[in-house]
Structure formats: structure tokens, C-alpha cells
Amino acid sequence: MRLILASASPRRAEVLRDAGISFDAIPVRIDETRWHGEAPAHLVRRLAKEEAARSVQETTRVTFAALSSEEIERYVVTGEPFDKAGGYAIQGRAGRFVTRVEGCYFNVVGLPLSLLYRSLIEFGWSPD
Fold it and tell me: What pLDDT score was predicted for residue 27?
């Protein structure tokens, strides 16, 4: 069975590779262009809904410690949050702010690995 990763996310590819799951990456593009006059919060919700309509869904709740303005500013200037879907990298510098993860850690990184693995087995995929 051939697994297609319909994403250009380097983190999703890394999760699959590290788990020993072979795949071909063929990204599906979603137009992320902000509509004229669209509020940033609306843009984020709209894009999240479009992506969710096309994907394996699992919820993970991440709790951060209370951060000072200085901590937030120091994190932002690292540049790390700018290419992350959630605006932070739990596997990177932002991990030091996380006090609790309820659900799949890998879902936060970009792919709910355990759910994916179980689903692949149900579809007849073999890890060998």
C-alpha cells in the first residue's frame, strides 16, 4: 500500500520518517491568501476549517505557563513561530513554556501519529 502525505510540512514528514513509515509527499495546496479586509482571526479560522475538511482529525490541548511580554517578544524575535501552523514549535524553544499536553504530542508537532498508525493498520497497511 502506498501512503501519500498530502502536505509540504517538513515536521509531518519528519514524524513519519522517524516512526519508520514510508510515504511519498505530494502536497495539496490551499490558497492561503488573505481576503481583502479579512481580519487575521477570520483568516486563521477559515484556513483551519479548509484543512480540517481535508484531513485525519484529533484534538490535543496544550497549556502554556503565563508568559511575560518580554518572554513573548524574545520568542518572536527568534523567528521560530513564523513557519508553524500554531505559531509555536512545541519541539523547539516554545517547549519550555508548555506545562501540560492532553492528547497526542505528535498531533501538536503536525500529525496525530498513533491515530494515523491505527488507521493505516485498519486499511490493511503493513509496517514491513
Answer: 81
Q: Which amino acid is at 74?
A: R
Q: What are phi and psi of 100, to 5 degrees?
A: -160, 140
Helix (H) or strand (E) holding 124: none
pLDDT tens digits for range 84-106: 878 899 999 999 999 999 999 99
**Angstrom distance (rounded) from CA 7 to CA 4:** 9
Residue 75: all three cell numbers together:
520568542
Handedness of CA 68, 70, 73, 74 (dihedral sign): negative
* CA atoms of 45 and 51, how far apart (whole Å): 10
Return phi, psi of residue 39, to 5°. Answer: -70, 145
The SS3 of residue 24 is strand
What is the C-alpha to C-alpha distance for residues 118 and 125, in angstroms, rounded to an integer? Answer: 10
Calculate Rg over the CA atoms of the chain.
16
How far apart are alpha carbons 105 and 127 in whole angstroms?
21
* Gap between the Cα atoms of 110 and 12, Å rounded: 5
Average pLDDT over all residues of the chain = 88
Residue type at 36 in one-letter notation: H
